[in-house]
Specification:
alpha/beta; Rossmann fold; six-stranded parallel β-sheet; three-stranded mixed β-sheet; 14 helices; elongated; binds nicotinamide-adenine-dinucleotide
Length: 296
Amino acid sequence: MTKVGFIGLGNMGAPMAANLVKAGCVVHAYDRSDVAVAKAVNNGCLSARSAADAASNADFVITMLPAGSHVKSVYFDADGIIESASHDATFIDCSTIDVETARSVIGAASESGFAMVDAPVSGGVAAATKGTLTFMVGGEDEAFARAKPVLEKMGKNIVHAGAAGNGQVAKICNNMLLGITMIATCEAFNLAEKLGLDAQTFYDISSTASGQSWSMTSYCPAPGPLESAPSNRDYQPGFAAAMMLKDMRLAQEAAHKAKAATPLGAQSEALYALMESAGKDNLDFSGVMRLIKGDL
Ligand code: NAD
């Protein structure tokens, strides 16, 4: 029976760990919140006292944490994963973190003899619960081959993006593009309306013309044309602007280090940051429409 140590049982980690249990794994679960551990135990996990306790004797150690600093801490602290895992364990970090930290943690794990991949996810809590996440995976071929069967128990698309850290690269570049196209789509709908063209008519034209994008046809930020979009539920998430801002900041940090010009990424980050300053970053990221309309 596959033994998994799972660390970080928040909005995403809790349902992911529950799916591993459903798939027949023995899951030793740890979170610094006792309440989160108690919920995981209700879902069939076994309670671990620490990250080290979750990792010891595990075939796979999975982390799902907020940011790079948390990942470093659970891997490298005196009571951390690297010190306590059995020598043939495979590590999978599913958190969305900065590329530099992802590469340095995988490098250190590999120097200590462990196979490790970064495997950030696309898809929110609903996909985590249904087991339909997409995993973008960075790491050596052998580490990917080991991680894949476990990831398949939590997701439906498992994509090898190349070397260590490339999962994070794929994630932040995709989300930077999404964040930018969403704002561009908001600007176009707002201008159309101000010039006397209603949202539905503009949608019918642009969604089959060259202005079409996922932001328009799967997530239209103007209320009306697309029934399922958060714009028709007062911009309740969905994917919160706070999460988009986190990913935009990671993209900008990486762009500065790589000396890559991302002028639209920088502008878009600034606009999502205005949603944060207005205390509205709990809205869906398509709620940036309200900022563009001067209605935030
Ligand atoms: P969350 O804040 O709900 O959960 C994080 C959990 O980590 C919390 O329960 C916290 O107590 C725990 N934690 C923090 N530091 C710890 C430590 N040192 N030891 C043990 N536990 C610790 O966050 P989330 O929404 O589950 O997101 C997790 C990751 O997934 C993030 O990197 C996020 O960017 C990414 N992500 C989230 C979504 C989403 O829709 N929520 C979608 C895609 C990716």
